[in-house]
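Entry 12.
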Amino acid sequence: MCNSGGNGMIKTNSNYLDSEERKLIKSLETNGWKPVKDLETWKARLSKTATNTLTKDQRMNIRITRNDLEGIKIKAVEEGIPYQTLVASIIHKYVTGKLTEKRKGGHTTVSAT
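Predicted 3D structure (tokens):
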């Protein structure tokens, strides 16, 4: 759906792009990107970080209600992922501060940032 057309401008069908994708294309067209110094070191660092982040080396067993487990399984099917992956993702988001509780008027809601 994209090509440069030879003039450095990226031609796209913007009907298929969300706002983040449009911003990315604009930053590419306006030289908003800077080269990385010592690219190989940077790649190695990012690779190590990704490996450490994705390595699941601990097991956890919990007891939850049947209704909660069924609800998690339904949400996982809606997301197209295994329910264990969904639970791990929720825990990770909570621990890293990307999933927070908000209390208002005696009610608690959970939101992802």
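Annotation: The helical segments are 19-29, 39-54, 66-79, 83-95. Residues 1-30 form one domain.
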